[in-house]
Specification:
heterodimer, A: mainly alpha, two-stranded antiparallel ribbon, 21 helices, globular, B: mainly alpha, elongated
């Protein structure tokens, strides 16, 4: 196996161990930043290799597929690993100004790196049981991060988060057991070949639905999203940013992977369910956001509504729609993580996240206002930002298959998104602070560490927005790989085994 | 708890449990046992000691912070996995060294698998002890 497949996994683990052993000397933050930057370099290298050679696969411990654990990177995996590394790097820098010394002593940086390793592993693995293991790694690390040095509120959010995720895990494991009983394999590539030969196709659909529910909880789709708004507004901002950016997207990734490669035997049924789920998720998410007044709670509900768009892309299953889903996935991670980071800065400047009780940011911190406008408008789908292209492709795909009503919902939800963003804008930025505080960026402790990642992610949003062509072409290639898994299967199982 | 019988008994037990845990660790490759169960047994030894003599003494007897033991163990396990790269193999491929191997005997087989198991042993020992010590001290 080549180093480029393993390095994105080995580096965060090594960084986690080093940071943990150094936790009392507070050097962990630098270990975390160095680890994240090395991880970023490794995932760029992986991306270059995948772009150059197509799907690459490796067998851990030299056990041949489908018996051993396979690591495999196609374009979708590679881009998700890369975007994870970018988010991880940005948040690692941001943590300099956000994480308290007490949290560092308790091992924040180690948990953060293990979370990154878990997410990366979930994207890279080519084996269903191994995916379950990475989900567990993520769950353990994220639970630790949620309650780290927390009070009642954090424990409350954390317990809801873990309880609902455990239900998903149990379903996932049950589904794995049943699928293994039917096919005798858990390797994605091998499964893709063997599901066609399963006698009882009805039972296969049942198992497919179990996976849909299990991944649906992870992805926070309707009606399984309740853990998300209960937990995401409680931890420190760096933690919630990386959660908001990455955790639900692992669920979406798993859905895309399983429902394009393995469970495509009864698209008429499974993907119709997905279509309804997508519509409800979009609408409920955006309505939930309209009812909230806490900065992070509004954003949390928007994650849900945006997940709906990605599921919609998967549900339509046309090349254009899948391409939209991939584009959306990438755009959303950058924008959402950035908005949570900005919420953190806003809180430190104004003293709160309840938008009705803060204000004055536009007048006294105009730079932050601009930085907020970019991801917020991108999220709402304003041209020429990245969100516009993402929404445009999805809506175009629904119009192409003549689902007028679905297209109408997607557009209406976009409009509602603007409403919530306007609420944050008008309350937190435009109106004067009710207590007369003039929040200035000068007062921010460790200003550069907080503003640089925010600005960097905003620049990335603008680059995707102004120059979408290479990204669209890339998404097209990714989709082609998803719709025709034969190179993937060949890379994993070998042409001549 | 302050019972002389328990303290005297615990001292004996701790020794036996620690030796037995090392035995379990080493036999693990081909027979039931291994790093996980070995770590659990070793942790039991220190837990018995902590119940008899208090966590403060147990921490002293352990010498290292249990969290750091777990961290170091994870590092050793990772190292055992990465080691394979030096031989040009895939991650976590077992590397074997047969000391004094002849035609009909394999000599003393040493492997990176054992190093991995030692890492697991330390992770389990450290993790279990951090939890039990913290619980014991909170009560």
């Amino acid at each position: 196996m080549s180093w480029y497949l393993t390095l994105p996994l080995v580096i965060p683990f090594a960084a986690a161990i080093t940071a943990y052993l150094m936790r009392r000397s507070h050097l962990g933050r630098w270990v975390s930043i160095i680890g994240s930057s090395l991880g970023l370099a490794a995932s760029i290298a992986l991306m270059i290799v995948v772009l150059d050679q197509g799907v690459v696969a490796g067998q851990m411990g030299n056990w041949p597929a489908p018996f051993g654990i396979t690591l495999v990177a196609d374009l979708l995996s590679a881009v998700m690993v890369l975007i994870t590394a970018i988010t991880g790097f940005a948040v690692a820098i941001y943590a300099l100004g956000d994480i308290t010394e007490r949290q560092e002593e308790l091992g924040y940086h180690a948990l953060f790196q293990i979370l990154l390793a878990g997410v990366t592993g979930a994207f890279l693995t080519g084996d269903l049981f191994n995916l379950y293991v990475w989900f567990e790694v993520m769950l353990i690390a994220s639970f630790g991060l949620l309650i780290l040095n927390g009070g009642k509120e954090q424990i409350d959010g954390g317990v809801k988060y873990v309880a609902l995720n455990l239900i998903s895990t149990i379903l996932f494991l049950t589904g794995i057991g049943l699928l293994y009983g039917m096919t005798g394999t858990l390797n994605f590539a091998d499964l893709a070949l063997k599901v066609e030969g399963v006698e009882n196709q009805g039972l296969l659909t049942v198992v497919a639905m179990m996976f849909m529910v299990a991944f649906g909880v992870k992805a926070a789709v309707f009606p399984l999203f309740f853990w998300l708004p209960a937990a995401y507004h409680t931890p420190s901002f760096a933690v919630s940013a990386v959660f908001a950016g990455l955790l639900t997207k692992v669920g979406v990734y798993a859905l895309i992977r399983m429902f394009t490669m393995v469970f495509d035997h009864d698209i008429g049924f499974t993907h119709t369910v997905l279509l309804w789920v997508a519509c409800f998720t979009m609408v409920i998410g955006v309505l939930g956001a309209a009812a909230q007044s806490d900065f992070r709670k509004i954003l949390s509900f928007h994650i849900i509504s945006q997940i709906g768009y990605m599921i919609l892309g998967l549900a339509l299953m046309t090349p254009l729609a899948l391409m939209g889903a991939v584009f959306y996935l990438v755009h959303h991670i950058i924008v959402k993580a950035n908005l949570f980071l900005i919420a953190g800065i806003a809180k430190r400047l104004t003293g709160g996240t309840e938008v009705y009780q803060i204000g004055g940011l536009y007048k006294s911190a105009p730079f932050l206002a601009i930085l907020f406008l970019i991801p917020a408008f991108s999220l709402a789908g304003f041209p020429p930002l990245s969100g516009f292209w993402a929404k445009y492709i999805i809506v175009k795909a629904t119009l192409d298959v003549e689902m007028w009503f679905v297209a109408f919902i997607a557009l209406a939800v976009g409009l509602m998104t603007i409403y919530s963003m306007t609420k944050i804008w008008a309350e937190a930025f435009w109106k004067p602070h009710p207590k007369g505080i003039e929040p200035e960026l000068k007062t921010l402790p460790n200003k550069a560490a907080q503003l640089i990642p925010v600005a960097g992610l905003a620049v990335l949003t603008i680059i995707i927005g102004l120059n979408p062509e290479p990204f669209v072409i890339f998404a097209e290639r990714t989709t082609a790989q998803l719709l025709d898994p034969s190179p993937y299967i060949a890379a994993v199982l070998g042409v001549t085994p | 708890m302050n019972s002389i019988i328990l303290i005297a008994g615990a001292r004996l037990q701790v020794v036996l449990l620690l030796v037995f845990s090392a035995y379990m660790l080493l036999r693990g490759h081909n027979a039931p046992g291994g790093g996980f169960i070995g770590g659990l047994i070793a942790a039991t030894g220190f837990v018995v000691y902590a119940i008899a003599c208090g966590t403060e003494d147990a921490r002293k007897a352990l010498r290292f912070d249990p969290g750091s033991i777990a961290g170091a163990g994870l590092g050793i396990a990772l190292f055992a996995g990465v080691m394979a790269v030096f031989w040009g193999d895939a991650l976590f491929t077992g590397q074997w060294l047969f000391i004094g191997a002849t035609e009909d005997s394999k000599g003393i087989p040493l492997s990176s698998v054992l190093i991995f198991d030692i890492g697991v042993y330390l992770v389990v020992l450290g993790a279990i002890l951090s939890i039990t010590f913290a619980l014991e001290e909170a009560v």
